[in-house]
Each structure stands twice: as structure tokens, then as C-alpha cells.
């Protein structure tokens, strides 16, 4: 099939897994959806395509607005969306980053095998749930005073290293070594700082989680070896973001844009796309505040990992270093970063907005840490708590097709409201434990219902498309053992 129609939107098939909404009217660029026909059918059922088309109205948007295979409807800008805008003549959009700035994932490897863990699942999930703060509101591993918050916002994981919560090796295996030099704590409001001070080292709620997994499949032995991964190995996946601090920061700047750049807002088809002109004072302040919130999120995940190491040490009665509990990588998937990309044969500095999309740089990009410079960036793609997750590596085609990006997860199929109507949390927990030996613990049954496996797209299909397009190459697949949620 060469064309597909969803309402008033027609997509033309460019090649396998690549569909284009042609540029017309006031669009500043065409839009592209990277999906199989099965995934495209699901993507077309909500407002994702309309939001993607709307995103092409952002000033200075370059090449295409892009939707990843896991795309679904978001606030203004679709989740699974990538939009690169000119950093000189374009704009930066808090709406195209989202409220949970630097929501992201990190994976920690161990030298434990699944056999080592059998029989301890219930003890481990209870201990993790008890030790790691989760759910709405406050509670963290540490509570920060004003000086501590500013230090975290300014320095990120360098603060965690000095405070004894991280190692040099942790920093070496984090995107940007866990610190954004462009961070400006003074551009983060006091209200945002107050919301974050008692949430440092916490999962939060919604789709955030900590999951103990085992490696079940290895697809590229050489890359897996470079990543320190092998079959039957136990790994830990952490998914959370900047908590109330990031949410308040986004809210603050959306409100300011409404007042200070109402003229630009009027030109956009959706106010949730609110953007500040590049090089404007507000754009510079938002970028500095966003980078500070990015640092906060990295520290948040680092403290959750630190507490996880302590729990494993207690449950397995040995030092976490003896279990070789090392950070594989930490990647952000709600972010806008200044990056240099080749456009029409010319290197240009762009704001690359990734909202529910993961950076996926191939070998050779200068931003990669030395450990992965020759193999490519690790990319972590969580599935649902009843399905597998994947570790990929940045694909060679990603720079040409997606500004070095791929999917960030399975992608939702249904809303949280619908999920709670279709699923009963306690039943989901029982079925996962009895049928698949997956131990889940959460603050409420409603949270489990909202995150039931049937709520999500097929992560295997999402990753297949990524792999076949060459934007993110399959390395290993993992499967849940224990999962804790807010």
C-alpha cells in the first residue's frame, strides 16, 4: 500500500517503514512516521498524526518532524516525537520537551545469574519497595537544603560523586558524564526548587519503575561483550525523571511564553507547542533551567541506583562491588539539546527536541564516552512489566533519518482511564506472578492496572522497525523478574 489516510491526514509510503505527510499550507517542513503498517494503524487511532503535523509549524524546524515507532498522543507534541529547530533562527519549545524534563532510563549490570536470584524474588522485591521512595508527593533518599539543591542543579552527578553516592565509573558511563555545563540554577524558580528538595532519589508515580531483569537473548555477541552483557545475567533498569522540579520548570516557562511571546504562540496551531524564539532572553533562560533540571534527574536516578546497590548487598549478603554492580549507561528521553548535524551538506547547530525519544548515536560521534566511542551508544528500550525490554546500540542510519534518535519504549495503546476500566491491578499482579514468575509491588492496584502489559504496543515490533531501519541495532533482550512502581 503506497498511501494511508487517517481523517484528513494522508501519508505516503517513502519506503519500508517510512511514511510521509507532505508539506503543505503553513507547514515549515514535511513530517515522517517511522512504523510498520501494524504500528501505523495503532498510531493513527489517536491525535498523534495531528500533533505531528502541528509540530511542523514550529519556526526553524529542519528536514522533517519525526514520529518514532512507539509514537502516541501527548500534550501538544507527540510522545515519540523528534523535532530539530535551528538554534539561530528557529525556536526552543518547552512543549516539545514535556513536563518531566530528562525523564530517562539507566541500566546497571551485575555478575549475578538468574539462578543466583531464584528463591529470593519475594524478599528482593519487598526490600527494594521498602528502601526506594516511590509514589506521588515527597520522600527521597536525601533531603536537600537550598545550597544542596543549587549544587545538584549546577553540577549534576559531580555532586553525587563528591557526596559519596557515585563513583568515577558511574560518571564515565552516563550521557554527558551526568552534568550539563549549560545548567543555570538561577533560572529555576524557587517554587520548582522547593518541590524538588524532598524528592531527590525517588521513582515518582505513573509509568516510572525499577525493574530487576535477566538477559534472555543476545543478538550481537561482539557488541554485547563490549557492553558487558551476556545470557542469563541479572541487570537492573531504572526509569524516572526530574519529579516535581522538572514539572514546575516546564509550567513556569510555558506561562512566561504565553505572556512574553504571545505573537509566536498565536501562529502555532496548538498552544501546548509553546516556543520561545532562538537567541531571545527567554529561550536562553529556559535552556539554562532545562539543563539544570536535566542534572537534577541524573542525580535522582543515581541515588535510586545507590540505594539499589545497598539493597542487593543486604539481600545477597555481599558487597555490591563484589557483585560488579556497574552502570551500563543512562540516557534521557525528554530533552532538547544543542547538537551539530549535517543538513544539506552543511553543519548546523540545532535544538534537537526528543520527547519520548532516545538519542542513538553511532560510533564516531564526539559526544560518546570513550568506553563506547568505537562501538556506538547503548540505547535502552523498556517494554511493559509483562514483556521484554531491549538494549540497542546507536545505528549507522540514525544521523541521516532521525538526527541520531530512536524509540524510547513500547508506547501506550490506551489511556490510563481506559486501562483502569479494563484491568484490575491485583489480578494483573497475580497473573504475572503465577504465569510468568514476575514479582510486582506497587503503591496501589490502580497503578498496576494503568501499566498492565496490554496497555502497551508490542515492544518486539517497535524494536524490529528500529533495527531494520538501522537507527538502533538490537543487541540483547531482557525479561522482568521483579518490578516496583509508585
Write structural notes for this entry:
The strands form four sheets. Strands 1-2-3-4-5-6-14-13 form an eight-stranded mixed beta sheet, sandwiched between helices. α5 crosses α12 and α8 runs antiparallel to α10. It contains 17 helices and 20 strands. It has a single domain, classed as tRNA-splicing ligase RtcB (Alpha-Beta Complex). It starts with a strand and ends with a strand. The chain is globular. The protein is an alpha+beta fold and 486 residues long. Its cofactor is Mn(2+). This is tRNA-splicing ligase RtcB.
Keywords:
17 helices, alpha+beta, 8-stranded mixed beta sheet, single chain, tRNA-splicing ligase RtcB, globular, about 475 residues
Which helices and strands occur, and which strands form pairs?
Elements: E1 3-6, E2 9-15, E3 18-21, E4 31-34, H1 37-43, H2 48-55, E5 65-72, E6 79-86, E7 91-92, E8 104-113, H3 114-117, H4 121-131, H5 146-155, H6 157-162, H7 168-172, H8 190-196, E9 209-218, H9 221-227, E10 233-240, H10 243-260, H11 262-267, E11 276-277, H12 281-316, E12 326-332, E13 334-343, E14 346-355, E15 357-359, E16 378-381, E17 389-394, H13 398-402, E18 405-407, H14 416-422, H15 425-436, E19 439-442, H16 445-450, H17 459-469, E20 472-485
Parallel strand pairs: 4-5, 19-20
Antiparallel strand pairs: 1-2, 2-3, 3-4, 5-6, 6-14, 7-11, 8-10, 8-12, 9-10, 9-20, 13-14, 15-18, 16-17, 17-20
